[in-house]
Amino acid sequence: MRYSPLLTDLYELTMLAGYLEEGMAEKPAVFDLFFRNNPFEGGYAVFAGLEPALEYLEGLCFAPEDLDYLRGLGLFRPRFIEFLRAFRFRGRVTAPPEGTVVFANEPLLTVEGSLAEAQFVETALLTTINFQTLVATKAARVRHAADGAEVIEFGLRRAQGPDGGLSASRAACVGGANGTSNVLAGMTFGLPVRGTHAHSWVQAFPDELTAFRAYADAFPDSCILLTDTYDTLKSGVPNAITVGQELRDKGFELRGIRIDSGDLAYLSREARRMLDEAGFGKARIVASNELDEQVIESVRNGGGRVDIYGVGTRLATAAGQGGGALGGVYKLVEIDGAPKLKVTSDIAKATLPGKKRLLRALGADGRFIQDVICLDADEVQGGDTVFDPANPLQHTTLPEGSRLTDLRGVVMENGRRTDNSETLATMAERCSRELALLPQGCLRFINPHRYKVSISDRLNALRSGLIDELRRKVG
């Protein structure tokens, strides 16, 4: 898929034109992409969106019709339009693999290149990484709440448009969803596609039993019946059992039922009892209807017997407290070899200058202890003092014997990917594995444990020195 270079904010183009006029366009620059707060007021995020971001960078070029449009705006000089004709991304990108568990203030993407190319790609990278990381995180939370039950992404009809629906399906599977109802996502990303039928199917027939029989005739090998069009326990489940017996007489098996309204804990529990008593112990129960991690947790706590959760609106739109948008930002951290930072009166919002590495400290059992952001040339090891990035007066010591590993690697060099694409299944497995290695409490939905992210001694000193220097300049 070609992503148009016009998928950007106007100020990226005006800055690009200004850099060209000032003779700055080819200066080497480094930008970091990061977010300041974990989404959903939770304890972590799941990194996603790298593959489409790299696809955008690799294919970045201005077509003749793009240049004609920009020329017609009357904003840009002919020299700039000609500059764009040969414009490509030829830089380097450093990032963690998708499915990696990450935290606030950590550099996710580091983009190196000319000031022109590294600046211009800001908007496209943010819209890609922000949304997919947000949805992947939501999916991981839903999967945790489901506690072993399957999760199917059902959100296309409520997603933020067709593009958002496709991206949401992809990101949900990075975070742990087992499949999607989105057929285009199934074809595009090789995902399992799942679904049953709507209430309108039942309403289109003279009665529910006739509707169920017709569906079973059409799909005898994959028959899951929606039981709540009229009354789940008095009509839907008994009729499903009748059709299940008729399928069995023909050599097939009822795959399951779906419940889309009402008290899902009570209804699923009673439906399970009825199915078991009728000899359909292997028939699975699917639940849907405005589900999220909080609702699923309450269904489980209420004794619900759900095998598959179909999660739609609140997954595809990443709804919920602390959701809606990730809030990722893209900041200049070095230009022409000189470290740069943005600083305000609130040191917690001061950026971290210079080219950096992102390290994870692991215990002897492989579990995660904390993350450390350090300068590229730093050597960090157990026993070192590290600092809270929001409050440099607070510091701690990395445990002796802890093993530090780089979370990121170079994924693009000279504008070309350095490795083959991973499968979504590989990304989902990484996500599941890393979530299991977090400190206890990080997965809680309410008041989760705060995972430590620190900065090295040298990075702390560099930032403090630059802040003091800027304050002297501005008085």
Which helices and strands, and how do they pair?
Layout: H1 10-21, E1 28-34, E2 45-46, H2 50-58, H3 64-72, H4 78-85, E3 92-95, E4 101-102, E5 109-114, H5 115-120, H6 122-146, E6 150-153, H7 161-174, E7 179-180, H8 183-189, H9 199-203, H10 208-218, E8 224-226, H11 232-249, E9 256-259, H12 264-277, E10 284-287, H13 293-301, E11 308-311, H14 313-316, E12 329-335, E13 338-339, E14 356-362, E15 368-375, E16 385-388, E17 391-397, E18 403-406, E19 409-413, E20 416-417, H15 424-435, E21 453-456, H16 457-474
Secondary structure category:
alpha/beta
How many domains make up the 3D coordinates? Answer: 2
Strand tally: 21
The CATH class of the largest domain turns out to be: Alpha Beta
Rounded radius of gyration (Å):
26 Å
In brief:
The chain is α/β, with parallel strands linked by helices. The protein has 16 helices and 21 strands. The protein folds into two domains: 278 residues, nicotinate phosphoribosyltransferase (Alpha-Beta Barrel), CATH 3.20.140.10; 110 residues, Alpha-Beta Barrel (TIM Barrel), CATH 3.20.20.70.
Can you offer a commentary on this structure?
The protein has helices at 10-21, 50-58, 64-72, 78-85, 115-120, 122-146, 161-174, 183-189, 199-203, 208-218, 232-249, 264-277, 293-301, 313-316, 424-435, 457-474, and strands at residues 28-34, 45-46, 92-95, 101-102, 109-114, 150-153, 179-180, 224-226, 256-259, 284-287, 308-311, 329-335, 338-339, 356-362, 368-375, 385-388, 391-397, 403-406, 409-413, 416-417, 453-456. It has 16 helices and 21 strands. A hairpin with a 5-residue loop joins strand 14 and strand 15. Helix content is 38%, strand content 19%. The strands form 4 sheets. It has a 7-stranded antiparallel β-sheet. Strands 7-6-11-10-9-8 form a 6-stranded parallel β-sheet. The mean pLDDT is 95. By secondary structure, it is α/β, with parallel strands linked by helices. The chain is globular and about 80 Å long. The protein has 2 domains: 10-135 and 323-474, nicotinate phosphoribosyltransferase (Alpha-Beta Barrel); 195-304, TIM Barrel (Alpha-Beta Barrel).
